[in-house]
Specification:
Elements: E1 4-14, H1 20-29, E2 35-43, E3 46-50, E4 54-56, H2 73-86, E5 90-94, E6 101-107
Antiparallel strand pairs: 1-2, 1-6, 2-3, 2-4, 5-6
Length: about 110
């Protein structure tokens, strides 16, 4: 049997947007209108990995977060990368944003 491979993409997720109850909890627990985001690793649209959350000012809108005003972003991404490496994923491409990553892994 020839081994095949699977592809994983990293995405930035607004935790409040993942479900209605998460949205309510995010609003109730946020300070000064911040939102909680995290990085997720997805295979075929299914989330398999999640990083720790980090706050992002709510007034930022569609502007991608940066460590300077989204403290913890770099640590959360590093955490996700470590988890992927521990499970045998290898980075195969990198986009313009730090989290614009694609990984590959062989499957038996």
């Amino acid at each position: 049997m020839n081994p095949s491979s699977e592809t994983l993409t990293v995405a930035l997720e607004d935790i409040g947007g993942s479900s209605w109850w998460a949205g309510i909890l995010t609003v109730l627990s946020s300070q000064y209108g911040s939102t909680q985001r995290r990085f997720v690793g997805q295979v075929d649209g299914e989330t398999r990995y999640k990083s720790s959350a980090f706050p992002v000012p709510g007034s930022v809108g569609p502007v991608p977060p940066r460590e300077e005003w989204a403290p913890g972003m770099t640590a959360a991404l590093a955490e996700l990368k470590r988890n992927l490496a521990n499970d045998g994923w290898k980075e195969s491409s990198h986009g313009t944003e730090p989290w614009s990553l694609t990984y590959e892994r062989s499957t038996p």
